[in-house]
Amino acid sequence: MFVGLSAVAGCQASPEMVSTPVTGFNHTSANINSFTVNGSGGPNIGPYEGGGKQVCCSVIPRDWNPNLKAVIEWEKDPNNDKNIDWPPLGTDAYREVYKKYSAKYTQHRAVVDIPRYAEKVCALQVHFLPCDQVRVSTTCMTPSNPNYPDKAYFQMKETTTCPNL
Questions:
Q1: Burial of 161 (0-12, 13-18, 19+ CB in 10 A)
Q2: Residue 7 pLDDT
Q3: What is the phi-psi region of residue 119: left when phi exceeds 0, alpha when psi lies from -120 to 50, beta otherwise?
Q4: What does the DSSP assignment read for 41-62?
Q5: Which of 25, 146, 154, 160 makes an SS bond possible with 50, Cβ 3.0 to 4.6 Å?
Q6: What pLDDT is attached to residue 80?
Q7: Which of 101, 34, 102 is nearest to 72 (CA)?
Q8: 93-124 confidence digits (pLDDT tens)
Q9: Among residues 69, 102, 72, which one has the least CA distance to residue 84?
Q10: pTM of the prediction?
């Protein structure tokens, strides 16, 4: 299992490992405040957004194997209430409102399979799905490509009830 490895100096990896950018796609109405892939950070992703920001880097083995996993951890703002009357930034009033609002944030962790890849991995694409599910893709394609393998994620609908997983 591959967990907890991260490149340190400028996305460099050992000869057995390769560095790869991390990007995310949020297929939910919640905000993804932050996320990590095997400890390497990913960007904030608004509701139904993603793909526009990549961060450097996570590392993966040069050669794929069927036991390869990724640990995804994320913080979610399930309320995503943009109508808060925020006091001026840096004030005690702001800190008090933020403290109450951020208490609603939820923390999540999932261990997921890293799908088969050949010689080239362009990015680890993390897909945040309804019901706090997450999947990883290693494709070099973008969602606008007609052959993009993860198009089904963009068709998923949120539900008000989730099965006990």
A1: exposed
A2: 35
A3: alpha
A4: EE--B-TT-EEEEEEEEEEEES
A5: 25
A6: 67
A7: 34
A8: 999 988 988 888 999 999 999 998 877 778 88
A9: 102
A10: 0.79
Residue 5 scores a pLDDT above 60:
no
Tokens representing 143? Answer: 């969602």
What does the domain layout of the chain look like in residue ranges? 17-144
CATH 2.60.40 fits 17-144, yes or no: yes
- CB–CB of 37/124 below 8 Å? yes
CA 82 to mean position of chain CA atoms? 22
Residues 25-50: tens digit of each pLDDT? 999 999 999 999 988 887 889 999 98
Q: b/e for 68-95, b at 16 or more Cβ within 10 A?
A: bebbbbbbbbeeeeeeeeeeeeeeeeee
Coil, strand or helix at 3: coil
Separation between Cα atoms, residue 111 and residue 37, nearest integer Å: 10
* Per-residue DSSP letter, 153: G
